[in-house]
Amino acid sequence: VKWKKSDVKFEDRFDKYLDPSFFQHRIHWFSIFNSFMMVIFLVGLVSMILMRTLRKDYARYSKEEEMDDMDRDLGDEYGWKQVHGDVFRPSSHPLIFSSLIGSGCQIFSVSFIVIVVAMVEDLYTERGSMLSTAIFVYAATSPVNGYFGGSLYAKQGGRRWIKQMFIGAFMIPAMVCGTAFFINFIAIYYHASRAIPFGTM
């Protein structure tokens, strides 16, 4: 091994790899199209199986409705009638349930928007640009959380909509910050170099 002295500073050693002209970034359109067609095929297959099952059950139920009470089979119900009590039963904790649904819709929209922006823009060329974009989009998509969570809470007959709004808004940040605090406490306990002082946190 022959070592050669370089004039590049230690802090700037990765700048050439972050330069967009260093690599020719190509979007693999064939792979994206292939994955998209695979998803469409699988969704079509599953929906076809479900529609066949539902059509059989619907035909059987409509035939049973035409019968009188003496001819009707009063045995065990089968098919979709077995789960209708569970599917359409209101949630036992509508406040938490609607907040989770609203937060999930917000995370889905944030993921989708960040992926689209990363495909259009070169977010990976600068340090921290992906994270700052995700934080900005998360703040901008808070109405998605409020709309889906609040509408579901109202459909279930909830009255404390202000409490639901606060729980939905603070659920994900509280979990992220709590996890970060817990990991940082462990790092402080072991005197790790990545530990952030408690006052700074």
UniProtKB/TrEMBL annotation:
Keywords: Membrane, Signal, Transmembrane, Transmembrane helix. Pfam families: EMP70. InterPro entries: EMP70. The keyword Transmembrane applies. Signal peptide: none annotated. It comes from the Eukaryota. The chain crosses the membrane at residues 27-50, 95-119, 131-154, 166-192. It is found in: Membrane. It is a multi-pass membrane protein. Belongs to the nonaspanin (TM9SF) (TC 9.A.2) family. This is Transmembrane 9 superfamily member. It comes from Xenotaenia resolanae.
